[in-house]
Design goal:
Elements: H1 18-37, E1 48-49, H2 50-57, H3 61-69, E2 79-81, E3 86-89, H4 91-101, H5 108-111, E4 119-123, H6 132-144, E5 150-154, H7 160-164, H8 180-184, E6 196-197, E7 203-206, H9 215-225, H10 234-239, E8 248-252, H11 259-267, E9 270-275, H12 279-301, E10 310-318, H13 326-337, E11 341-347, H14 350-357, H15 372-400
Parallel strand pairs: 4-8, 4-9, 5-7, 5-8, 9-10, 10-11
Antiparallel strand pairs: 1-3, 2-3, 6-7
Helix pairs in contact: 2-3, 6-15
C-alpha cells in the first residue's frame, strides 16, 4: 500500500518576518482587551454591603445603621436597596467611613493633621506566574481599605500592573508617562508629575510601558560616563518627596535583577516575595537570593549597606490537594526562610484564575459577583496579610506624632 506523502512544513523564520507577525499579535490583543475591558470605564470599583462596611470598620452593623440614620450624620448613607433595610456603599464611601469611624488608626496624611514619612515596599521574584503583580495590586487595594493613601509604581516593561489599574499599557500609556523621563533627567522631571489616579479610590499609579527597557541601557551608560554616578539611588531620590503624600508606595518589579529592579530594592523599606510552593519556583527563589547577595556584597564593600524593615515570603496559589507538592515545598521554604516565611497563605482558586482573565483581583469583586465562601477563602488571607504589613508600621507612625 502506497503511503500518501504530506507536504513538508517550512518552519524557518526570518527576522524580517517578525515585524509583520508582531503586528498581527498586537491587533489580536487589542481586540481581546476591548472584549475584556469594555465598556468604558474599563474597570469599576466594587460596592459593599452594610455588613461588609461594619466588618471593615470593626464595629457592629447596628451602629452603622444608627449613625447613617442620624439627622446630623456627616457620613455617606449609601444607597438603599429593596425594602430599604439593606444599603450599598461605594468604595469612596467605605473609605470615608473607615477613616472617620473605624478602630483603625489613621495617619496624618489622611486626617490632614500633619504629615509623616510613608513607607516603600517592593514585590520581587524571578519566576513568572508567581502572582507577583496580582499580589502587588491586592496589597495596594487591601491597604487602601484600611484608609491608607497608596501609590503603586510599575517598574516592569510588561506593564501588567498598569493593566490591573485599568490602563491599556500600549494605548493609554506612553514612555513619557512612566519613570523613564525622570531617569533621563531627574533634575527637571519630578516623579510627582507622572502620578495618575485610578478607578480605585485612594490608589494612584505611575504606569509602565515596554520602553522601560531603555533604562537598562541608559543607567549603565551613565556609569561608564561618570565614575561617581550612583545608578542605584536614582529611583530612591525621586520617590522621596512622594513619601509625604502617601502612606505606602508599592513597587512592582520585573522578574529579573535589572537596573530598575535594583533601584527598587535599594529604595524600598521592606520587601515581599510571593512564592508558589512548587519545586521549580522554590529553586528560582534561591537563584534570586544568590544573585542579589552577590550584588549586595558589592554595595557593602562600598559602605552602602542598608536595612530592610522586613522581608516577607508569602506562599501563593497554594494547592492543598493530597497529591500536590505544597506540603513538601512548604517544608523547604520553612527551612530556608525561617521567620521570613509568613504564616499567611493564599490558596489556589478558580476565583483568582477568573479574575486574572478579566484583569481583576479578588478585591475588585463585589460580594454578589461570585460565591461568597469561595471569594472569602482567597480574599481573607490577603486582608489579614495587609493588616500584618500595616501593623509593622502603625506603631512607628504613632510614636512620630
Amino acid at each position: 500500500m502506497k503511503m500518501t506523502e504530506l507536504p513538508a512544513v517550512d518552519r524557518h523564520v526570518m527576522l524580517s518576518q517578525l515585524k509583520e507577525f508582531a503586528g498581527r499579535l498586537s491587533s489580536m490583543t487589542d481586540e481581546l482587551r476591548d472584549q475584556i475591558l469594555a465598556p468604558r470605564p474599563r474597570k469599576n470599583a466594587p460596592v459593599f454591603t452594610t455588613a461588609e462596611l461594619a466588618e471593615m470598620c470593626g464595629i457592629e452593623r447596628s451602629k452603622i445603621q444608627y449613625l447613617y440614620n442620624r439627622e446630623d450624620n456627616p457620613l455617606p448613607a449609601g444607597e438603599a436597596q429593596g425594602s430599604g433595610r439593606t444599603r450599598i456603599f461605594t468604595l469612596a464611601e467605605v473609605r470615608q467611613w473607615v477613616q472617620q469611624v473605624s478602630t483603625i488608626w489613621q495617619s496624618p496624611i489622611v486626617t490632614g493633621h500633619g504629615a509623616h514619612r510613608g513607607k516603600i515596599l517592593i514585590t520581587a521574584n524571578f519566576k513568572g506566574g508567581s502572582c507577583k503583580t496580582t499580589t502587588t495590586m491586592c496589597i495596594a487595594q487591601g491597604l487602601s481599605l484600611r484608609g491608607r493613601r497608596v501609590l503603586v509604581v510599575d517598574l516592569d516593561p510588561q506593564a501588567s500592573l498598569s493593566e490591573l489599574c485599568g490602563l491599556y499599557a500600549e494605548k493609554d500609556v506612553t514612555w513619557e508617562d512612566t519613570v523613564l523621563p525622570y531617569i533621563y533627567d531627574p533634575h527637571t522631571v519630578p516623579l510627582e508629575s507622572k502620578v495618575q489616579s485610578t478607578y480605585w479610590d485612594g490608589l494612584d499609579v505611575i504606569p509602565a510601558h515596554n520602553f522601560l527597557h531603555d533604562a537598562e541601557f541608559f543607567l549603565p551608560s551613565m556609569v561608564n560616563k561618570k565614575q561617581d554616578f550612583e545608578f542605584w539611588s536614582v529611583l530612591r531620590n525621586g520617590l522621596e518627596p512622594l513619601r509625604e503624600r502617601y502612606d505606602y508606595i508599592i513597587l512592582d518589579s520585573a522578574p529579573s535583577l535589572s537596573y530598575l529592579t535594583l533601584n527598587g530594592l535599594m529604595a524600598a523599606d521592606s520587601m515581599v516575595m510571593p512564592l508558589v510552593p512548587e519545586s521549580l519556583d522554590f529553586i528560582s527563589s534561591v537563584s534570586f537570593w544568590s544573585l542579589f547577595a552577590e550584588v549586595a556584597e558589592g554595595f557593602v564593600q562600598r559602605e552602602l549597606d542598608k536595612r530592610f524593615d522586613f522581608i516577607s515570603v508569602l506562599l501563593s496559589k497554594v494547592d492543598y490537594g493530597p497529591t500536590a507538592s505544597a506540603q513538601v515545598v512548604r517544608g523547604w521554604a520553612q527551612r530556608a526562610y525561617g521567620e521570613w516565611l509568613t504564616a499567611t497563605e493564599v490558596p489556589a482558586s478558580s476565583v483568582m484564575s477568573n479574575g486574572a482573565l478579566a484583569f481583576s483581583t479578588v478585591f475588585d469583586l463585589s460580594r454578589s459577583d461570585t460565591v461568597t465562601k469561595t471569594l472569602a477563602r482567597v480574599k481573607q488571607p490577603l486582608v489579614d496579610y495587609c493588616k500584618w504589613i500595616d501593623d509593622q508600621y502603625v506603631a512607628e507612625w504613632r510614636d512620630e506624632q
